[in-house]
Specification:
Elements lengths: L8 E6 L2 E6 L6 H9 L11 H21 L4 H15 L18 H18 L12 H5 L5 H37 L4 E6 L2 E7 H23 L4 E2 L16 H13 L4 E2 L3 H6 L2 H27 L10 E2 L17 H25 L9 H25 L5 E2 L1 H9 L9 H4 L1 H14 L3 H7 L5 H7 L2 H4 L15 H14 L1
């Protein structure tokens, strides 16, 4: 038998009127209105776990501060504290349902947090959800606060929490490249500048360079994160601290530092801090730097693995999936390609953040929701991209050692190592002959009686060619013009 009974609801009222709220919902009327108004992204704020956790941390710190300064009765403050802890521990995140894109400078997000934490607290007190006469989302959970200090502070705390997981993944990727650098330590290859053959190096040196650049980005991200740690709690609406006790700001900062574990500080000018979002722009820029440099590494991996027959073919990337619906056996570098696309998205998100920062007016920036969404998405995608690049690509890279050796052996670039001993002009003549004949540079040098076989082999050893072993002495360079002419004549005869 089918029941025609309507879903059970509770009635909630605000200054605009009344709405029916599902009886099981922990959110309330302010969240319901946001759902009606902002069905744009179809992505709730709960997709960013650390933002939800940070909102709960701010509410918990505020409850403790309000209790400490006597702005809230201990019973009510403790209920809010306990409810916020439930959210911090990962429960009720599905109740944070307002869209990531919203008008109102984040008011809907703040009200969603106020309502959910309040209704959790009401249940902890043995009361019905919606019993706001006993505990109010605005009068109690939002006491001494405004969206304009809660929301930017929560974004900063959430980014601080989220960043740590990104840094951990970045370091793992750096270590993966270091491991490959050690594995390829003695594998000689031809270096390239402007896509043209240059002097020799080792494949290990190339991969060590990748690791080093990722380590530099780890430091830049860490440095820029500290710009986020200046918060404006106690500023309320525009930075004047209206409706807030003077002791609240220092108290809430102390509790929030303790709860979050972040080295937060209170802004010295709350009016400026409430309107200025420059710290988000700087942090977003450092994310873009990391993304673009990672994308460049992926470009190099795709080039080095190109082929496998008609390309460079120096390294092999793990085969992850069939590469074509028409060409049997084709395998594409899909993992680096995916990371490239993440980098493009991060660069676009950085431009969005820049425009949103510029768009702020007077005492408030109304566009912090898109700032938050852009940066949280960049961190999330970057972390996942680094993970898949490490696990599904870098860890499984192998070197085509025979091909690399053959390319070095036939490369005219090795003659550069001999210029301190035979001079530039003779080296140029040798290079030209080697290109025309395809002969080995070492053989040509010995035949021209410029160096002995032992001397040539010593200078063209992998350690010397890659710079791992420095040259300590040089054979006198050919200086006389007639000597150079003689060499060129000999090589011309050979051709």
């Amino acid at each position: 038998m089918t029941s025609d009974a309507a879903p059970r609801t509770r009635t909630e009222t605000d200054s605009l009127g009344s709405l029916e709220i599902p009886v099981d919902a922990y959110w309330g009327i302010h969240t319901a209105r946001a759902l009606e108004n902002f069905g744009i992204s179809r992505r709730p704020i709960s997709v960013y776990r650390d933002l939800v956790v940070a909102l709960a941390m701010v509410k918990q710190a505020s409850a403790r501060a309000n209790k400490e300064i006597g702005a809230l009765p201990a019973e009510k403050a403790d209920l809010i504290d306990r409810a916020a802890q439930e959210v911090i521990e990962g429960r009720f995140h599905d109740q944070f349902i307002v869209g990531v894109i919203q008008g109102g400078a984040g008011t809907s997000t703040n009200m969603n947090a106020n309502e959910v934490i309040t209704n959790i607290a009401l249940e902890l007190a043995g009361r019905e959800k919606g019993d706001y006469a006993f505990l109010s989302p605005i009068d109690h959970t939002n006491r001494s606060q405004s969206t304009n200090d809660v929301y930017p502070t929560a974004i900063k705390v959430g980014l601080g929490l989220d960043l740590q997981s990104l840094l951990d993944e970045l370091d793992l990727l750096r270590r993966s490249f270091l491991a490959k650098a050690q594995e390829f330590h003695g594998v000689l290859k031809v270096g390239r500048t402007q896509l043209q053959d240059a002097v020799p190096m080792t494949l290990g040196q190339e991969f060590h360079g990748f690791a080093t650049t990722l380590g530099e980005d780890h430091r830049r991200l860490t440095e820029n994160a500290y710009l986020l740690y200046e918060v404006n709690m106690g500023a309320t609406a525009i930075g004047t601290g209206i409706t807030t006790h003077p002791a609240y700001g220092p108290a809430v900062l102390r509790h929030l530092r303790d709860i979050s574990g972040l080295d937060l500080d209170l802004a010295t000018d709350l009016v400026e801090s409430t309107s200025d979002t420059g710290a988000f722009m700087s942090f977003s820029s450092s994310l873009k730097r990391n993304a673009i440099k990672l994308s460049k590494i992926c470009n190099d991996l795709r080039l080095l693995s190109s082929g496998p027959q008609a390309g460079l073919g120096e390294i092999n990337l793990p085969a992850r999936q069939a590469g074509s619906s028409i060409m049997p056996g084709k395998v594409n570098p899909v993992i680096p390609e995916a990371v490239n696309q993440v980098a493009f998205a991060v660069a676009g998100a950085d431009l969005t953040v820049t425009m949103a920062v510029e768009g702020g007016q007077l005492q408030l920036n109304a566009f912090e929701p898109i700032i938050a969404h852009s940066i949280f998405q960049s961190i999330t995608w970057m972390r996942r991209a680094m993970h898949t690049l490490r696990v599904n690509c870098v860890d499984g890279i192998t070197a085509n050692r025979e091909r690399l050796g053959a390319m070095v052996g036939s490369s005219v670039g090795v003659v550069t190592a001999l210029t301190p001993f035979i001079g530039y002009a003779a080296s140029a003549a040798l290079a030209k002959t080697a290109l025309l004949t395809g002969r080995n540079i070492a053989d040509l040098v010995v035949e021209a009686d410029l160096m002995s076989r032992d001397e040539v082999e010593k200078q063209l050893s992998p350690a010397r060619l890659s710079g791992l072993e420095t040259v300590t002495a040089a054979i006198p360079v050919l200086q006389a013009a007639e000597d150079v002419v003689a060499v060129e004549d000999l090589l011309r005869d050979d051709v």
